[in-house]
Write a structure and sequence with these properties.
Blueprint (H helix, E strand, L loop, with lengths): L1 E5 L4 H12 L3 E6 L6 E2 L16 E4 L10 H21 L4 E5 L25 H19 L3 E7 L1 E3 L6 H10 L10 E2 L1 E3 H13 L5 E6 L7 H11 L11 H14 L6 H7 L1 E2 L4 H7 L7 H13 L14
Parallel strand pairs: 1-2, 1-4, 2-3, 4-5, 5-6, 6-10, 7-9, 8-11
Length: about 325
């Protein structure tokens, strides 16, 4: 196939481009980097250009910093996505695959794992922009001959992951106490996610489809910490503090950092789980990894010499 990949230099995009090339597909990468084959700036007002002859567009690019201004999320994650999709339809692209997020479903109203239609209005700019892009893409699929597939992955893990997962690794490596086994959240491995992208692109598609993507497991922060400790050849250190103590400390952290009180506690102890059975039934794809399987390779990557990680950022997802 002739493939166009946005976000090709990112965590998932790099692995996807390697997998596409390995199976013999032609890959054209789009982005702001002048070294890429096609120029693309989702924050600009100029209409994107999609060349003829593309069989599938993998739109992975987007603004991932959820603390960024809502207007920027609106421009990049919503309007930029719609402009690219319309350019792809005009160029005769048969299939447009959009990398959305489970955050398009908004905050969880309860403890149950949620399906594709169990959403609430997102409260932050990131979730609102992703949800708006999904609605616009459904309309484009109805108005044109281009099939649209939306994938909503949960938090993605794998070697080279940053953000919250690296923060947990640093926490465990410093010998600090791990949080209690409270809450539950969904994740998905990068290799499994890339395999799904390849599967979806290779199968016939028509109309509009939207699926949550998880590895089928539910993880507490403690389970993640235990896996990271085991990968380091150590046991979790420190006393087992009760959940109320963690919530109090987390709330103090939010206040000191000027963040919404309860944000950190929700990230560590809240429930954010999703059902991913629909995509498995529709495509035949099945995840092959759990976090515990990949943790050793992730730890090896974080231990390797390199630029210092930014560890003072806002806790996300």
């Amino acid at each position: 196939m002739e493939c166009l990949v946005t976000g090709a230099t990112g965590f998932v995009g790099t692995a996807l481009c390697e997998a596409l090339a390995a199976r013999g597909d032609a890959v054209r990468r789009a982005g702001r980097d002048p070294a890429l084959e096609l120029p693309l700036d989702l924050a600009a007002s100029a209409a994107p250009v999609v060349p003829p002859g593309i069989d599938v567009v993998f739109h992975l690019a987007g603004l991932a910093h959820r603390s960024a201004p809502a207007a920027l999320h609106e421009q990049v994650n919503h309007r930029g996505t719609v402009a690219l999709a319309r350019a792809a339809a005009a160029a005769g692209v048969p299939h447009f695959i959009f990398f959305s997020s489970v955050k398009a479903l908004g905050a969880a109203p309860g403890p149950e794992a949620r399906g594709e239609h169990d959403g609430t209005p997102p409260r932050d700019g990131y979730g609102r922009a992703k949800a708006a892009a999904e609605r616009a893409l459904e309309k484009i699929a109805a108005e044109t001959a281009m099939a649209v597939t939306v994938l909503r992955p949960a938090l993605v893990y794998g070697p080279g992951a940053r953000g919250n997962l690296e923060l947990l690794y640093r926490w465990v490596a410093a010998g600090r106490p791990a949080p209690p086994a409270a809450g539950a959240r969904s994740l998905v491995g990068r290799d499994d996610l890339v395999a799904l992208l390849l599967t979806v692109a290779a199968q016939p598609a028509a109309g509009y489809r939207c699926w949550n993507v998880t590895d089928g497991e539910c993880y507490t922060a403690r389970r993640l910490c235990e896996a990271l400790a085991l990968a380091q050849g150590r046991a979790l250190a420190g006393p087992r503090l009760p959940a109320w103590a963690w919530r109090a400390v987390a709330t103090l952290r939010d206040v000191l950092r000027g963040e919404h009180p309860g944000h950190t506690a929700a990230a560590l102890l809240g429930r954010d789980s999703y059902r991913g059975d629909a995509v498995r039934a529709a495509t035949g794809w099945a995840p092959q990894q759990r976090f515990e399987d990949v943790a050793p390779a992730m730890v090896d990557g974080w231990r390797a010499p390199g630029p210092p990680a930014v560890l003072r950022g806002r806790i996300e997802r």
